[in-house]
Amino acid sequence: MLNPFKDFLKPKYVVGLQVKEGFIGAVQVFNGLKGPEIDKAAFREVSDPEEMQNELRAFLREENFKTEMVITALPASKAFYREITLTLDNPKVVEKIIKFQMEPHLPLPIEEVIVDFLGPGADGSISTFGVEKRKVAEHLSFLSGAGLDPDIVTLDALALLHLYHYKTGGTAEQPAAIVHIDKENTLIEIVYRNRPDFFRVFPDGKQASHQIEETLRLYKLKRPAVLVNEILVTGCESADADMVKDIGSKTGIETSVWRVFDDIQPMLSVPLGLALSAAQPVTKQVNLRKEEFVPKSQVNLRKTFFFTASAVAILAILLTVNVYQKVYYLEKQYEGLQDQVRQFFVDSFPEAGRIVRGQEVAQLEQKFTEEAGRYQGLEEATSKEKTLDVLLQLTKIISEDPAVQIDNLSLEGKDIRLDGRTSSYEAVDRLTNRLTKSTDFKNIKLVGAKMDKRENAVTFNFALEKNR
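Predicted structure:
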C-alpha cells in the first residue's frame, strides 16, 4: 500500500560509504518515483593512512556527494556473531532482552558492547551481532574528523546480505556463498533462506580458494543435507579471472564475479549494499548507532518540520470548522443522559425521596455503596476461595522445576505479578511454556529477564491474568 507521507519524508539521496585501509568507496542512490536509482559511484586509493581523514573530506567534496543521509559499515571481523534461539517472536520484547541473551557468549562485559539483531528465522533462531563500544566510538570519531556524522553504522557483511536480497528478490531457496576480498581480509558469508547462515573472516586474501574449500567443509558439518548452489566473488581482487576460475575448479561449484549492476565495479559492492539498504529496506536493519551513539540530528529535519507544521495547520482548520457542531451534539447527548440517569434512579430506588438535579450520579453511587455493603462478607469469602485456587495452580506449575524460586507474588483482581529467580534463561523459557499451556491463565507476558552476576542467577518478572 502506498504511503505518501512516508515517501515524502524519505531522504532523496542516500550515500553508502566504506572506508578501509588504503581505500575509500561510495555509492549515491537517488530515491525517485520509480524506486532507488544509482546516481553516482566513485572510489579512491589512499597510500598514506595518516591522510585518510583529509582524503575522505576531499573525496566527498570533489565528487560532490550529497550527504543528506549517510550509512557506513564496520568490518565483520570486528563483530561478535551468534545464533540465539528464543521462544519469543515479538520484536519489541526481543529488543529488550536480546542483549542479556548475548551476554554469556561474549568475552567482555555486556556494558561495553552494542548489540543488535536481525528478525527471527523460521526455526526461531535470531542472528545477533555485538561490537565493542570502543570500536564504534573510534569509527565515529574518525568520520567526525572528516566532517561526517553518519545516520546508520552497520557491518559490511550485512550490506552484502541486503545486496543479495535486492538481486534475488528474496526468492532464493538454495544457499549461496558470497566471497568479498579486499586488502585487509577475505569475508566468506553463506546466505541460506535469505539469512546469514555462516560467517568466516580470513586475514589473507591470497589463499581464497583454500579458505573457501575449508569453509564449505565446515558448513557441511552444520547442514549435511544442504549444498551451496553458487559462489559469488566480489571486492578489490574479484576481477582476477584466474582466481575465480581456480575457486570454481577446486570447489566444483559455479563461481562468478558478482556484478549487481554492470556499471558498478565489484569493489563497490559494500557501499552499494549500504546505500540500497537505507533507500529500500527489505528486512530489519542492524544499526550500531544505539544507546550513547544515537545521532543528535535526525534525517531530513527540514522536511519533517515542514510536514509537522502542515499537518498541525490542517488539523487546526478542521477543528475550527467542526467545533461548534460537536459542542451542540455533545450538549444534546449530555441532556439526554441526565434524563436517563434520573429515570433509572427513580425506577431503581423509588424510596430514595428527593433527587437533586445535577447530582444524580453521586446519589446513585451512594445508594450502590449502601447496597453493596450488605454482601461484603460473602464477597470477601468468595474472593479468598478464588485466591487459594490461583495459588494452588501456580504452586503446581512452579514446583515442576526445583531451580525456580519465587520472591514476590501479587494478585489484584484478575491481574497477577510474579517475580523470582532461577539458574538460567532456559529455565525461564520452560516456566513460560508451562504457564502458557495452563488453561487457568492467559495473556502471559515475560516483562523482563536479567542475569544477576552477584547472586549468579537469572531474575525474571511475569505479568499474567486469571482465565476466569
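Summary: The two ends are 40 Å apart (CA to CA).
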